[in-house]
Prior knowledge:
By secondary structure, this protein is mostly beta strands. Helices cover about 15% and strands about 40% of the residues.
Amino acid sequence: MEKVFIKALIALLPVLVTGCDLGFDDQSLVSDLRILGLKTDPPEYLGPDYADKDRDVTVSILLANPLGAGEGGKLSCLLRTCVIPGDYRCDDESSTVMLAEGPCVDGVTSFDVTIPVGIIQQTRAADPSWRAIEAGIQKAIDEGVNPALAETMGRSTYSGTAVWVEIVIRGGPLELRGLQSVILSPANPVGRVANSNPVIVGVRLQGQTAGTVPEIPFTPGRSVRVEVLKTWNSKETYILPTFDPPFGSTPVEEFLTFAFYSNAGDFSPNTTTEKPGSVFNAEAEDEEPTELWSSWTAPSSDEMPKGGVRFWFVLIDGRGGTDWLTMNGVELTQ
Length: 334
C-alpha cells in the first residue's frame, strides 16, 4: 500500500506550485495589483496520444487591480511555456515558446493558446518518474524480458506530466508572474477520467438555510460568516496507476481549497482546505472535521474604499482545476 500511495503522491506534486509568495502582510486584503486565480480549460488531456500532438487550451487570468494600472492605464499579459527550470521561470529565450501576448484587464482575461508537442515531449523526458520508468524498461529487456511486455508493463505505471504556462503581467507598478499547469496523461489505468474544473455556484451567509446571495450585505466593523458553495461533482475521486501490482489502480480523492479575498476588511482565515496537515496521514482517525467557510470583518466607515467593497472567491481542486466568483458588497443602512 505504501508504494501505491507514493505513486499517487508523485502524480499530485506537479500541480501544487501555483506561484510565489509576493510578501503581502494580509493575504486576503487586495490593495494593489494581484493575480488571484489562473485556470486552463481543459485542465487535463487524457488519452493514448497525449504526448503525440499539439494541444489547444484556453488560459484564463483572474486579475484584481483595485487602484488602476497607473500611468499609461494599460496592462499586458504575456503567456509562454518551457521545460520549467528549478526557479519556475521561463527566462531562457532559447528554450522558451511564446504562446500569446495582449492586453489584460481588471477582472477575467482569456487567451486561446497551443502547447507545442515538442514542449510536451521535452517536459515528459525531463520528468524523474518517466526517466526511472524508461531505465526500468531497458533493464528488464537487458535481463531477457520480452521488449513488448517490458514496455507495456513499464508504461502502465506512469500517471502523466505537467506542462507549465507562465503568465507575466506588465504595465503596473510591479511585474507579476504566475504559473498554471496543463496535465497530460496516458489513458491508464483502465477507467481513468480526465480532470475537470470545479464549479462555484454562489455564496451563502450565516443564518441562511438555503439559496445564495447576489451581493454581500454588511455593517461596518461587524463580522459575517461566508461560505462558498460548489456543485456536487466538483470534488472528484479519480484513479491512478500503481507500481505494485503492475496494471493495478488506486482511488484518490481531491482536496479542495477555497481562497477568500476582499479590497477592504479582513478574512480569517484567508484560505480553508480539506488537505490534511500531512498527506502521508490523510486517513488518520484523529483528523478534525473540515470547515470550509471563512469569517469576514467589515472595515469601519472611515476605512471604506471609494469604489465600494469587492470580493473574490477562488476554488482549486489540488490537481490543476480552478474556478472563481467575484461579488460586490453593499453597506446596510441603519
